[in-house]
Amino acid sequence: MKKLVLLLTLVLFLTVIAVKADCYFANSCNAGDVAFIRASATNNAHAELRTQSTAGYQNVCCPNTWNYTCTIPADRALKLQAVTNSHVQRASLATYANDVCIKGVTYYTAAGVACNVGDDCVLKMSGSDNAHIADCTAGVIWERLCVLPSVSPSLNFQCTLSNVTIKPNCANCNVGANISLTGYVSGNCSNVRTVQVDARNVAGTCVVNASGGDIAGLRGSLSLGNDLGNTFINTSWLVPAINADCQGQTVNATVGFLFNNTNQLEGETTNAYGGLTFAGGFPIAMRCGNVSINGVTTFDPACNATTPPPSLFCGAADNCVYGNETTGLNPSCYGKFNTRLNEKGKSIWCSESNYWCPENYDYNPATQKCEYGTTICDEGYLPPSPKVPQVTCNTILDMILNTSKCFNNYVPPPEPLPYAEACCYDFNWTVNGTDYNYYSGKDIVVY
């Protein structure tokens, strides 16, 4: 009987595919893995350096393709208080003496937050300092030490990302600043919805990435197609609140990613360039003072912050912040006594305690109001005769009668005689008024 032999020929295409390589705790590491550090237990454990061999400790095993040497500060992943039986801390704190190294991109997440898609979890930490450690699979809600080593293999993506670049439009980028993200893609990119660029400073104390680190970002939206050939991409990211560790720090791009609408990885590259410097200084919020006459009569506030902008970092502690009174957009810092028009076209200035007040009103921290005081008025004489006394505006009645003649004492006149100075007038106030009035500076004629 004739037998039919079916020959099946399998054609194997060998592609390098990165498999999740989370580290694990074990008495001995699997083939291809080595000890990163050692731990006294799988949960709530003390740590020791990988060179130690204390009885009862087990290995924290990670791939042997990773480089566990430190040549620059950014290679430090953890620091140990002692060589054994030790607590751990983030490398950026730098108060412990013993370095634990992974050469590559390392970062930390907030408590309970997973590593970025495609990145590897090394271990969990009970906090950023004086911490215990645990296996990544432990049920504790701790922060994670994550890694995307530069030596790890690349996924066989259909969409290729290259030359991803951070291009800031600012020298010292404050909250709300617009940062451009550019690069090139090719291949089938129709599933891509966002591009992500991770960045960090040289010391590793300021880390910017998608789900962990000190600041979440740099991430922008994309809409791409199929069969792309080296297509330029350009999107943007707005600087959020700036973590204290990142104030005044310069971060540089380390790696770029492409994600789909379910946050699954669609592409990556280590060809990442550019960076930005975050603003530093004094964090100041937009503050609009309520207005009154000597704490008695209340008018409309100097400005309104319906949707206040986040605090900006300003150059001096006595600065004020002003942004769009409805949306909070386009905030800027102003020096003390600097003036501008508010949304109603009224002149306001930066007064005490970072508060905006009507021009010639001062913020009183005791009453928490912008108040008009008698110190602004001059008690000298007015022309045409130097013998006619100036009426002081220290009562509401004077204001109703429009008899007050005042000048701004923050800008004293150069002449020694009051009758030759620049005065203000036309202060009109009504009994039932709810809006504040302010002074319009005008020179008077000296006869």
Average of per-residue pLDDT values: 76
The oligomeric state is single chain
Tally of separate helices: 1
- Radius of gyration from CA coordinates: 32 Å
Secondary-structure class: mainly beta
Report how far apart the termini are.
135 Å
Q: Give the CA-based shape.
A: globular
The major beta sheet can be summarized as:
10 strands, mixed
Low-confidence stretches: 1-20, 150-154, 374-447
Domain count: the total is 3
What keyword list fits this structure?
mainly beta, 3 domains, globular, 1 helix, ten-stranded mixed sheet, Immunoglobulin-like, 447 residues, disordered N terminus
Describe this structure as you would to a colleague.
The protein has 447 residues and is mainly beta. It has three domains: 24-148, no CATH class; 159-277, Immunoglobulin-like (Sandwich), CATH 2.60.40; 282-372, no CATH class. It is 1% helix and 36% strand. It has one helix and 35 strands. The protein has one helix at residues 396-400; strands at 24-26, 33-39, 47-48, 58-63, 76-80, 88-90, 98-101, 105-108, 120-125, 133-134, 143-148, 159-168, 178-187, 194-200, 207-209, 215-216, 219-221, 228-238, 250-259, 265-269, 272-277, 282-284, 287-288, 291-293, 297-299, 312-314, 320-322, 332-334, 339-341, 347-350, 355-358, 362-364, 369-372, 423-425, 440-442. Strands 12, 13, 14, 15, 16, 17, 18, 19, 20 and 21 form a ten-stranded mixed sheet that branches. Strands 1-4-2-3 form a four-stranded antiparallel sheet, with no helix packed on it. The protein has a four-stranded antiparallel sheet with strand order 8-11-9-10, with no helix packed on it. A hairpin with a 5-residue loop joins strand 19 and strand 20 (265-269). The chain is globular, with a radius of gyration of 32 Å.
